[in-house]
Structure formats: C-alpha cells, structure tokens
Design goal:
CATH class of the largest domain: Alpha Beta
Order of helices and strands: HEHHEHEHEEHEHEEEHHHEHEEEHH
Radius of gyration: 21 Å
Bound molecules: glutamine
Number of strands: 13
CATH architecture of the largest domain: 3-Layer(aba) Sandwich
Strand content: 5-15%
Distance between the termini: 46 Å
Shape: globular
Number of helices: 13
Strand order of the largest sheet: 2-9-8-7-6-3-4-5
CATH topology of the largest domain: Aspartate Aminotransferase, domain 2
C-alpha cells in the first residue's frame, strides 16, 4: 500500500476535539471544546427559517455573498473604525479555522519562518506544517502570560514571514494591550513581516481590559491579515462562518486559496447571519455582561477549590494549575477529571511548545446550571476523603 504524505507525521488529531469524544463516552460535563450549550439569539433563528425558504440553496459568490460582505464590512468599521470595502478587503471562509489556514498559505512559502506565541491555540502548529512554514516559538510567561520584548526581537531577527497573534488569546485569556500590539507592528514593519491575527473573541473581554484591533493601528492595515469568525460572538460555532480581512493585494491571493479549499461558506447561513451583523450595540454590551457573569460564577467555584488558576482578561478559558495533584502527565490528569470528577477539560500540554504539564484548560461558555453542576463536581477535589477514595 502506498505511504501517506510525510507532512502528516508532524502533528496529531486535535486533542480538544478528542476530549469532547472522551467526555461523551463517559457522560461527563464538557468544558473542553469551547462552544456554548445555549441557543443563538432568537432573531437569528427567525432569519435562518426565512433564509431556508428563500433562493439561497446554491453556491454563493465564492469569496462571500454580497449581502453578507456588505453587512460584515459595516460591522467591522463600526467597531474598529477601519474603512472596509466589501469588494476588496474581505474573503468569507468556513470559520476562522479555514481563514487561518488560507492566510498561512497566502503569506508563506515552504521554508518560511512564522512566529507563534506559546502557549498557542493548537491549530497554529498544524497550519504551519501544512503550509510548509517553520514555527519560531516565543514564550508567553505565566502567570500573566506576557512576552519578553528581547525574546520577541530575537525571533524577528530570524526574519520571519509572519507572526500569529491570537487576541483575546486562547488558551491564556490574555488581551494584548495597545502598547504590545504597537511593538509587534513596529517589529513587523522593520523586518517586513505579515501580522496574522485570530480574533474570534473580540467581543468577549472583561473590564477594565478592552479589545484593540491590531489592523487599525497607524500604518498596520497593509501588513495585517485579520482572521475572525461569527462563531463565538453569535453562539453559532456549528455554522462555520468566518472571514479574512486584509489589503486588496493579499485578499486577491487569499480568494484563490479559499476557492480551491472550500469554494465557499454555506449560502443560507450567510444570508441569515446578515441579521446578526446588524444587531445594535446593546447586543454586544449584553454579551459582555453575560460572559462576565459566567466567568465570575465559574471562578467562584475554582476559588473554593483552592488550586491556582489564570484569571482571563478575555475569551472564555481558564488554565487550572493541577501541579499539586501529583500527576506525572497532564493527559492522565485530564482522563481522571473525565472519569472520576465528571468534568472534561483539555490537557494544557497540547497548547505549549515547552514541556509544560501543569495545566488543564476549562471553558465556561455554558448555561449557569451547567457551570453550577460542573463547579459542584470540581470542588470535591478540596475534600481529602473524596480524593483518597479516588486514588489521589
Ligand atoms: N476554539 C474552540 C476551542 O479552543 C473550539 C475549537 C474547535 O474545535 N474548532 O476549544
């Protein structure tokens, strides 16, 4: 039998999605793969019903249905202040996952270097391998996950073709400050590097932190390739609607990659999502309020648990430090959490370049009932008798 391609030996299947499958087998509460267990906003569901009966069942324009791109361009300008021409600055993709892959294939030649902060969202190393690029990892240092300017400068001195910035950051919850983004943009300018951003959590940020758009910084629009999605903002992770926003030159090339990867995102879903893109500002304020409540509830259980954890500034993930539980491998710990505690998280090592087994990542994009049930299970760990009965 012929041998499959060598490039596939460099990475495994997604650990995040494997944890969801393990969780389902054991009937645990799934706080691993980040997606809500509540419905999208009602007006969006009504718009979907209407779209299903409309003339939207064949291919849309490959780089995005015109009505969707127009609504999207207006929404991006409303929040970032950037002028966006729906004809020249956008490609609609199947989620930010495709946007990232297409952005990497658009920016990089095989052998090019790409800066990736570590910990990182697990797709980025696979994206680098599939596009033939070599990652240069720059650590984000716990507990506040700041990068060291000297380490970043040293990475740029290796003349990378691109740097990937996930902001707000999955899995650390870090929100990059304007000063940090300016420093990154200025190094990118000096070394002629693309800045590829991944910003699906732009509207899930906890005060006093605020989301800064890297592409909107002075002089940044040309070299920034924004990848984003509607998944988290409108609770529609299954719709797979995302986009790339960049300069007309980059977009002209990215359209080709996208066209041959997927042709296009689902036409009826693009049509329905126009409604979401037109939601008033109050929708986004409410979303922020909703997630702030969820964060506070989940963190209140973690405080009772007594283990250290990262307090997210944005996005909806927490890294729980499980080093005191005595596991040698965090993958064993993650299995124990599913089987014994009944709550699924993701072993932290799948996000780190460094050998780091200290963390399990949990997310809190869930109904209050679900978070309470998960919280009650988690705090059993604080009970020595329960722990002895469960082998720890
Ligand atoms: N972004 C989510 C996470 O980190 C979901 C990932 C996925 O399965 N696409 O869990």
């Amino acid at each position: 039998m012929p041998k499959t391609a060598d490039r596939l030996t460099g990475f495994t299947e997604s650990v995040i999605r494997a944890m969801t499958r393990l969780c389902a087998r054991h009937g645990a509460i799934n706080l691993s793969q980040g997606f809500p267990d509540f419905d999208p906003p009602e007006p969006l569901l009504v718009a979907l019903e209407k779209a299903v009966r409309g003339p939207f069942h064949q291919y849309a324009v490959t780089w995005g249905a015109p009505a969707f791109r127009e609504a999207l361009a207006r929404k991006i300008t409303r929040f970032s202040g950037m002028p966006v021409d729906p004809e020249q600055h956008l490609v609609v993709t199947c989620g930010s996952t495709e946007a990232m892959m297409a952005a990497m294939m658009t920016a990089c030649n095989p052998g090019d270097r790409v800066i990736v902060f570590s910990p990182f969202y697990e797709n980025y190393s696979a994206d680098a391998i599939l596009s033939g690029a070599q990652p240069i990892y720059v650590p984000l240092h716990a507990p506040d996950f700041r990068y060291d300017s000297i380490e970043l400068k040293r990475a740029f001195e290796q003349k990378p073709k691109a740097i990937i910035v996930c902001n707000p950051s999955n899995p650390t919850g870090k929100v990059f400050t304007r000063a940090e983004l300016m420093e990154i943009q200025s190094l990118a300018e000096q070394y002629d590097t693309f800045v590829i951003t991944d910003e699906p959590y732009e509207h899930i940020v906890y005060g006093p932190h605020r989301h800064e758009y890297a592409a909107a910084l002075p002089g940044a629009a040309e070299r920034t390739i924004v990848c984003n999605s509607l998944s988290k903002t409108y609770s529609i992770t299954g719709w797979r609607l995302g986009y790339i926003q960049s300069s007309p030159t980059v977009i002209a090339q990215a359209r080709k990659v996208h066209d041959f990867l997927t042709v296009g995102a689902a036409a009826p879903l693009q049509q329905a999502a126009v409604t979401a893109l037109q939601f008033p500002d109050s929708y986004y304020a409410d979303l922020q309020g909703l997630y702030t409540k969820k964060r506070d509830l989940f963190l209140s259980y973690l405080r009772r648990l007594g283990l250290p954890f990262t307090e997210p500034q944005g996005a909806y993930y927490v890294m729980l430090d499980i080093s005191s539980l005595g596991f040698t491998r965090d993958t064993d710990a993650a299995e124990w959490f599913v089987r014994d505690v009944g709550v699924a998280g993701v072993p932290g090592s799948s996000f780190f370049r460094e050998l780091e087994q200290r963390f399990i990542r949990f997310h809190f994009a869930k109904n209050e009932n679900t978070l309470q049930a998960a919280g009650e299970r988690l705090i059993q760990i604080a009970d020595p008798a329960w722990m002895r009965a469960h082998g720890r």
